Each structure stands twice: as C-alpha cells, then as structure tokens.
Peptidoglycan DD-metalloendopeptidase family protein
Amino acid sequence: MRSTGWGVRGTLTALITVAALAAGPAATADAATAGTYGPAGSSGAYGSSSASGPYGSSGAQVTLDAPDFKAPFECGTKWTYATYEGHGEGDLALDFNTGSGPDGDLGLPALASAGGTAHVATDSDGGGKYVEIDHGGGWVSGVFHLQKQTVKDGEKVKQGQQIGKVGDTTGNGSDLSPHLHYQVKLDGRLQKIELEGKKLYPYPYEEGKEFLTSTNGCDGDDPDEPQEPKKTELAYTGAKSASNGSPAKLAAELTDEDGDPVDGRTVGFTLGTGDSKQKCDGKTGSDGRASCEIDPVRQKLTEDGTVPVTARFAGDDEYEASKKSAKLKLEYVSGRAFGLSANAPLGLPVSVEPTPDTGEVRTAGEESKSPPCAQNIRALVLSADALCAEVTTKTGPGKVTATATLAKAGIELPGLPVVGLSGVRSTSTSTCEASSGSVDLELTVLGESVDTGDTPNLEVDLGVVGAKLVVNERITTDDGGLTVNAAHLTAPGGIDVVIGSSSSTAHNCT
C-alpha cells in the first residue's frame, strides 16, 4: 500500500451503477464468492476484489437503487480526492484529504455517509482501523485507516453521525500519511462512487484536481443530524506542591463518557483565587493530556498551607464542558530566634522571657524580621550584653535562616561554677532539601577557657550532680525542622537558661 496525500474527515454519498452478472455459470459463481465486508476475492477488508468484478466485459448492466450517500466529512468542508493504480478492483476506492498539510487531517471527524449498521474492526492487510456500514440491500460503505473508531460494532448509526477519526493506521506497520480512504460495495464488489448527487467516476489520479464539498448534516432539522455532544471528565495529574518564586507544572487528562482520551482540545488552568489568580492553557494530545507552566508561582499562604487549582474544558459541538478542582500544597517556611531566656526559681525567683524575640515567622514569601536589639540584661544571677535576633526568608526555592547573637553573657547561680560566654552566634537554616546549623562562641568555666570545637550537643562537666551545660545544642523537630541553642544550662530546682536560640523549618516539601 502507498501513502496518499493527507488526512480527511467527513461522510461520502454514492449512487452506484453495477453490472448484472448475466453471463452464465462462471460469472454467477464469481458473484457468489463476494462477502458483505471487504472486496470480494480477498481475505481482508481492504484487499482487491476478484477479477470478474461488477464491471466485467460480459453481462448486461442494470441500475440498482443506492442510498443517498453524502460526503463522509463535516458540513461545509471541501476535500480533494484521487485514486491510484491498484487501489481496489478497477481503482474504484478513493482517498480524501483537505490539502492542509502532511498531518493536517489527523483526528478530523469521519462521518457516516448514510444510515445503517456499523461493523467495526481492524484489517491487518493494510486497511488498519476501519468502520463499514451495512445500509441494506447489499450496499456497504467503508472508511479506513482511522485513528480511532467512535462507534461500537453492531451499533445503529445515522447519516452524518461521527463514526471515527481520520488517521494513518494500516494494521501491518507500513508508513502512511493521514487521509480518509472511502469505498462503496454492492454485494461485496467495489462500485463507482457517487456522493452529494455527483458522479465522481472517472477519478483523478492526482490530488488537487477535483474537489467535493460536504452537505452532510448541514440541515439542522435533519433527523440524521450528529448526536448530542459527549460528556467529558477531567482528572488533575499535575504538580502536587508549588513554591513561590519557582515554576509549577499544571496538568490534566481529558476523557469522554466512554473513557477514551479527547485529543486537540484546550484545557485552561487557574492557580489560586482572588487577586492571586494565575492562569495558563494547555492543549490535549492523543493521550488526552494537557499541561502548562506557571512561572514563577506567586501565591498567598493560607491557614492550611494549600492553594486551589482548577482545570477547565469549555466544551464544543462534539464534547460537553467539564472541570476539575484540586489543592496543591504551598511550600512555606517558619523560623524564630531569640537572644536569651531564663527561669531560676530561687529564693528571689529570676525569670526572663525570650529577649529579644522575633516570634514565630511563618511565610511563603520573602521577608526579614529583626526586633530591636537588647543592649543589656541584668537579673541578679545572670547578665548579658548586645543581644540580637533575626529571621530572613527567600523564595525560588524557599529558604529560612534564623540567627541569634550576643556580645557576652555571665551566669552566676548558687551552688554552680560561674559560666561566661562571649562572641555568641547561633544559626539555623532550612530548605526543602535539608536543615543545617552552626554555633560560634568562647566559653569559660570558673574563668578557665573551655575548648568546645564544632561538636554538636557537647556536654560540659560542671562538677555538680544533676547540673548540665550543653554547648551547640541541636534539636530536630518532628516536622524536619532544626533548633540550635548556643548554650543550654539546666540544674536541679527547675533551673533552665538558654543562650542564643535559633529555629527553622521548611513545610509542605512533598
């Protein structure tokens, strides 16, 4: 088989004159071998018919009534047609295309040229996916090489009803450009085609020489008008999370009421609500999937940390509208930093709330929070100078850094050695990839310098039972966050002092 032109869509009509085989037993035997589907004398639906054929040299010809065949493509569209040598017995099959390009006809509707009962199958000898319609009285029309059949085997179809989509299937893997192969048979034998009341025979052997305009389904009152649009369903298949400042791929799959993918339709996507709406469009492919990208994402953080996304198909003459909504997790960060906190319930209780304290920072955007530094704190058993705290966040991707600093601090609790700290700095940083922390400080106990190195959670012996000083303390939270305390002193009696605390967490990272 050869590739002919480009694809076509529509419905053909043919009034056929056929030869009566009145030339004796041999001709009668040949006629008896002709099948209802596929040319006579062949094993497949798309083979060549027997040599005797309806237009043999012997026998008188009679005119038989044929259906009022219409073109097998949509109303008002104009297609060119041609045949080639070996294109069915007597070259009586036709190939239609719109002339719009090599793949211009792919997926266009193929219509029933007259009403009848559909026969749906695949021919492995070159015809590919096809639909033949038994119109009664021995008349059968067929469209071949379909991308898809849209009716079921044995289904009653009306003239103008879509029965398939133009394609390039062959059933045997041979190369073919999309087009619509159309043929008409009477008692299993190919016939000269007549469509739209026009006798197309003799056919041209070159495309672009002859054209046919369809009136199939043009009459709105025609009882054989196409069926109502099919119902559709959208399923969201895109990104499950989004991060401000970064792109997000939105995607959906569009199928019809039979569960088949819907090709070549625009799906609109909306991310967010109100003044935060962001939109993009995608076109479905042969698998029914459409996608597009929002770049960059700019969304407000909600209480539940989600952002709505909606996929919409507007519908058309063939398919009803549909939409699908889903929720994406919006990546965000949180952090906190403070210089010092203390609780020492002694004879004269000492209690210092976290100072200075950024409080909890929770955001999906970029910001920086740093309360005024505290110049000094004096509270009987402890002192501190130049305490500062800051939380900064960035997007694309999300990142949070919490930092606490103080110039120096002293702790003089009864029954415990004097502890001194200077040059204190703690940092905690989190992204969706990882959390990390660091501590810088100089430590003295009873005036003696203590080497703390870079070891996390280093315990310093104070020589008092139940008392514990942890330097470079790291605490991992259940949600993957990290708290870093430059120093943390606990002792019997409920004593709890924290110096230089920084915390950070990235959320909705999966």
Summary: The radius of gyration is 40 Å. The mean pLDDT is 87. The chain is about 0% helix and 45% strand. The longest helix spans residues 25-32.
